[in-house]
């Protein structure tokens, strides 16, 4: 049986290679400049996953070829990499550039058939059902929950510090508060991870270790990932299963089991019916969709569970990762941290130290918002997206590029099936967009992160534990922090935390 599977795999690889060779003859990218592949089999796919820091290769290519270039996938597949502002806008606002097959397969194994898996009409249907849960009015109800959970973290740190300083691993603490915030705001459910009373440590550990096997994949894993784009779905996970596959599947099992427990409790507590206003958490909105008469808006229990798994991971990783990187940037730039603290102190002096903050208070703080936006720009949690053209098209460019023949292109013609890489880490540092200091931190150039950052900076000062701390931005499925030379310790972001004077101990 194993010999038959190996023979089939070799045949598939040969078929894929022949397909790519024939396709290259008619490629619309053949005259576009870009780096030469170091390997015919691996193209640039392997070296892009082995970078010591996110975007290092792409930034070097940007300097040489501009923001639009040709790179190579496995088996010499020609791939368009584009960081041009107008080109990105054209692709992301069009329905003609869905997720690639392999990305959808991964999304299904991680989230089930939720919003991040769906495309086309299925995606629009799920978006329509979820929109009421994310309206501006709905989100305002979450601010007190963000503040309450942040206060719990503040009190825990005060207990630990006792007015002094310690080294805290942000990659351990911030995910805990984020999971508790999601539990309260999304599901009206207390995970209790931060206070140590949680029965859901398995879920926390599954999320924490989610992408450990996604960094630095082997050459075999990279090749098989490329084959998945061409293999029938029925074969994709039968021929070859990676450690990453097993870890992602384990998360889905744990997340769905947790989601079912929470959903059962919600169904028992909530009066059924589409017109029942009920609680304001996201799950309550989704549960009401069970009773809609309109099939286009109605959800099944399985769909709700998939949305819950999506919210658990996508919401957790984006918020906890963004918050950790913000504290890291503020540790590296104490002058910005001082300015932010002074803005927070001025607001407190104006409205009172016991007054709960409202959304308009956060909106009135320009430097707080500048810090958030600048950190998100320099440290995008999802540094690259992959799309595929579903039809022939022409992509407009705001920054024309020179071809191999010396001509200049302001539009890129592409054919159906063309794979496209969208490197946000590169776009976010384009000097044509952000100025000559695009690679520098400069906050002078939204509600959950504001609440968390406000509460933490009000009580604590952050610094690097030692001057030469070398934090790598590791390219995984998401960007994660690790200490250079210590990969065996996993995700880490140690920062020195000092309690501010005037911030009373718990």
TrEMBL record:
Pathway: Secondary metabolite biosynthesis; terpenoid biosynthesis
Subcellular location: Membrane
Gene Ontology molecular function terms on file: heme binding; iron ion binding; monooxygenase activity; oxidoreductase activity, acting on paired donors, with incorporation or reduction of molecular oxygen
InterPro entries the record matches: Cyt_P450 (IPR001128), Cyt_P450_E_grp-I (IPR002401), Cyt_P450_sf (IPR036396), Cytochrome_P450_monoxygenase (IPR050121)
GO cellular component: membrane
Cofactors: heme
Keyword Methyltransferase appears in the UniProt entry: no
Domain of life: Eukaryota
Keyword check for Zinc-finger: no
Regions crossing the membrane: none
Keywords: Heme, Iron, Membrane, Metal-binding, Monooxygenase, Oxidoreductase, Transmembrane, Transmembrane helix
Family: Belongs to the cytochrome P450 family.
Xref: PANTHER family: CYTOCHROME P450 (PTHR24305), CYTOCHROME P450 12A4, MITOCHONDRIAL-RELATED (PTHR24305:SF166)
Name this polypeptide is given: Cytochrome P450
Source organism of this protein record: Rhodocollybia butyracea
């Amino acid at each position: 049986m194993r010999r038959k599977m190996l023979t089939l795999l070799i045949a598939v690889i040969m078929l894929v290679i022949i397909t790519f060779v024939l396709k290259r003859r008619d490629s619309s990218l053949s005259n576009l400049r870009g780096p030469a592949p170091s390997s015919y089999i691996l193209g640039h796919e392997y070296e892009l996953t082995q970078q010591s820091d996110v975007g290092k290769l792409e930034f070097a290519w940007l300097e040489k070829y501009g923001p639009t270039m040709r790179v190579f996938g496995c088996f010499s597949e020609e791939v368009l990499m584009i960081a041009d502002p107008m080109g990105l806008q054209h692709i992301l606002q069009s329905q003609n550039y869905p997720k690639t097959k392999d990305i959808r397969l991964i999304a299904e194994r991680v989230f089930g058939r939720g919003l991040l898996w769906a495309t086309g009409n299925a995606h629009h249907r799920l978006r329509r059902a979820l929109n009421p849960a994310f309206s501006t009015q709905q989100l305002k109800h979450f601010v007190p929950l963000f503040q309450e959970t942040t206060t719990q973290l503040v009190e825990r740190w005060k207990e630990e510090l006792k007015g002094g300083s310690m080294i805290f691993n942000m990659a351990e603490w911030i995910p805990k508060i984020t999971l508790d915030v999601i539990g309260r705001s999304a599901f009206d459910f207390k995970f209790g991870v931060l206070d140590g009373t949680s029965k859901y440590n398995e879920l926390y550990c599954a999320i924490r270790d989610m992408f450990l096997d996604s960094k630095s994949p082997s050459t075999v894993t990279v090749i098989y990932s490329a084959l998945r784009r061409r293999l029938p779905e029925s074969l994709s996970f039968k021929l070859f299963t990676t450690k990453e596959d097993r870890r992602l599947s384990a998360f889905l099992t744990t997340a769905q089991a947790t989601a079912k427990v929470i959903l059962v409790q919600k169904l028992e507590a909530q009066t059924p019916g589409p017109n029942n206003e009920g609680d304001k958490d996201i799950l309550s909105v989704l549960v009401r969709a069970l009773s809609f008469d309109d099939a286009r808006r109605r959800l099944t229990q399985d769909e709700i569970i998939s949305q819950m798994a999506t919210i658990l991971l996508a919401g957790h990783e984006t918020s906890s990762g963004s918050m950790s990187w913000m504290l890291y940037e503020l540790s590296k730039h104490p002058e910005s941290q001082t300015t932010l603290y002074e803005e927070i102190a001025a607001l407190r002096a104006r409205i009172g130290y016991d007054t709960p903050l409202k959304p308009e208070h956060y909106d009135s703080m320009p430097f707080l918002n500048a810090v958030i936006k600048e950190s998100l720009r320099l440290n995008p949690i999802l540094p690259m997206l992959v799309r595929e053209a579903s039809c022939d098209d022409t992509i407009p460019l705001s920054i024309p590029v020179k071809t191999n023949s010396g001509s200049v292109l302001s539009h890129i013609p592409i054919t159906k099936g063309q794979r496209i890489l969208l490197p946000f880490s590169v776009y976010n540092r384009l000097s044509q967009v952000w100025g000559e200091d695009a690679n520098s931190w400069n906050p002078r150039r939204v509600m959950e992160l504001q609440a968390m950052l406000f509460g933490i900076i009000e009580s604590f000062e952050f610094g690097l534990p030692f001057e030469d701390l070398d934090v790598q931005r590791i390219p995984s499925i998401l960007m994660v922090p690790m200490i250079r030379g210590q990969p065996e310790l996993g995700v880490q972001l140690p920062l020195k935390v000092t309690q501010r004077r005037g911030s009373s101990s718990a």
